[in-house]
Amino acid sequence: MSGLRAAVFTGIDTPLALETLEAEPPRAGEVAVRVEASGLCHSDLHVLIGEWSERPPMVMGHEGCGVVEAVGEGVSHVAPGDRVVLSWFAHCGECARCGEGRPWICLRSRANESLMADGGTRLRRPGGEAVRSYLAVGSLAERAIVPATGAVAVPQALPADAGALIGCAVATGVGAVLNTAAVRPGQTVVVIGCGGVGLSVVMGAALAEAAAIVAVDLSDEKLRLAAGVGATHTLRAGERADAELAAILPDGPDHVFEAIGLVSTIEWSIRLLPPGGTATLVGMTPEDQRISIDPLPFTSGGRTLLGCTYGSCVPERDFPRLAELHLAGRLPIDRLISERIALDGVNRAFERMRAGDGARRVVVF
Fold it and tell me: Of 307, 337, 353, which marks where a domain is finished?
């Protein structure tokens, strides 16, 4: 056993506890990673405020980058010293979906249970109590033990803070555009919500060479960020938004991306679609939400509604590509980072997230 400091979820609306835990060595098919940076994601906040059901104790964080310390038996794709980005949906590689090349909907992953492939966890409190790692990552800790498919090698030159965001926000947002919706050059895009994922959607639309990229948010600060990463137009949400959007795109958008996860904005994204348009739902809602859809416009107008998880991402393929794009200056991930903090500042950072302040905060170890 080796010790590590971690931010532990102990109950709803309770500050994360900074605890010293014990970690087992990696078993067969597992990798031990020294975490260098971890992004703070709204998915973590869903857990902390009780919008998603989880049981404590659990180390939070799932958006991480670090250096391999050790590998278990049978692991050959990474070695000690490699820089890796952590995937929060470690896939099995053997089920029907993985065989189809769609690991983002793997049928056998235990990640959504925050468990390793064998149903266990590798972290313990000093008294022996098991502690799960959120989404089998637990990146808000000095060290993480992850399934082998959850550690993807990237160039050593990649900054750890950018690598952490590739692990969730960037892969999700850019992938939603390039993989899920397959936006074509010259098409028009509306992005509703300009947090870390929404800004990544904007960057993805710029990479796709969309003719118009309209970013929508309530925050002037986030709209300025959107303009800085590729939005051709920015629009403040409100009563005049529909008319202003119609002035920008008289024929309506080819694609609308909802990147917040609210019933009202999801329904709005659908209403914005012209015949032939596609709405892609990227934002994650609280549990047990319902939206209202009139199906007739979908059949009569050939509209499309897509659900997107993890940007339809193949981590082994997409993480290195995103890293190279960042290193080449084509994917300005660093502009998403509103603040770099120490682990001690994690609770204040989640409070700022809950208030809607800034894009992404990153814990740097």
Answer: 307
Would 174 be classed as within a structural domain? Answer: no
- pLDDT at residue 164 greater than cutoff 80: yes
C-alpha–C-alpha distance, residues 15 and 350, integer Å: 9
Task: State pLDDT tens for residues 106-130.
Answer: 999 999 999 999 999 999 999 999 9
Same structural domain, 211 and 90: no
Q: What is the mean pLDDT of residues 47-70?
A: 97
Tell me which residue range forms the domain holding 296: 182-307
| C-alpha span between 340 and 338 (Å, rounded) | 7
Cβ-based neighbours of 123, under 8 Å, separated by 6 or more? 4, 6, 21, 22, 23, 24, 59, 130, 131, 132, 133, 138, 141, 145
Say yes or no: 9 and 112 in one domain: yes
pLDDT, residue 209, reads 98
How many CA atoms are closer than 13 Å to the CA of 149, on its beta-carbon side? 22
Question: Each residue of 7-45: pLDDT tens digit?
Answer: 999 999 999 999 999 999 999 999 999 999 999 999 999
Residue count of the chain, please give it: 365
Both 114 and 159 in one domain: the answer is yes
